[in-house]
Amino acid sequence: MNNEKLPDWVPASGHQLRLAGVHFDAVRVRGVRGEAVLHHLTEATDGSPGPIVREVARGRWTYFLIPPGSSREYDWPPGAAYFGPEARDQYVGIPAVWGNTYPLSWRGAPPVEGVFVDAELLHEIVTAQLCAPPDEEDPPLA
Structure pTM? Predict the structure, then answer.
């Protein structure tokens, strides 16, 4: 790793739950759709999408970490859940950078202090992936 500083909310080992809305907000997308969003985000940012956590158990979720408080600025489509400052506490699992962190891992580079996924770009990509119009060949619904 280079000289860039890890955020203080990244655990030294294993993984820990962190309260969303304090150090970061998160947008969660499930399975292959999360992988598609990650792919398009990586392409759009020349390989530097920001901090992204992948869960390989259960729902195979992908969590995109955005600046704290920014999740409320967007109308996230069905299939994307946002975690931020809410009336009830919401937690996101955060893995360490090294060692056994199963079932969580960082996608791409480890997080850097003050660097997040671009919330506006993420919203555009998530909306495009989850709200794609039906095929023109599909019959209209009655």
Answer: 0.89
